[in-house]
Amino acid sequence: MKTLRLIGSLALLLSAGLASATDYVVESSVWIDGELRGTPSVVVEADKEATIEMAQGETGWRMTLLVEPPMEHEGAARDAIWIRVGISERIDGEWEFLTDSILGVRTGSTGSFSVVDPGVDAATPESARLYVELNARPVED
Question: Which residue of 13, 62, 110, 131 pairs with 135 in a disulfide if CB–CB is 3.0 to 4.6 A?
């Protein structure tokens, strides 16, 4: 049986029905070795790390997320954000770090990153060792 544990402010926000202007809904899709391993969503407060963990027995994956508005001197679009993401895979009960990345996306747009084996020409969810899609948008009141 799969369990989904959302760490951070998700449980509080869902129970209280509250969100500030700096909260973002982050939707994700994670493929590992060509297999879709989950499509969880989490509410993340800007500049505060949140964690999504999906486990099934001795296997699973964990993703940390941090949403940051860009600094003014970076010259980014007004609706742009940085999403810092790290991902680990649980193998035989032990967490193995896979990778981390920073995505610059406009709110509501989907960004992706991948890890492929040598010789793979194009990264797709089916061909990559790891393929992650993220979409973040401000929480609407």
Answer: 110
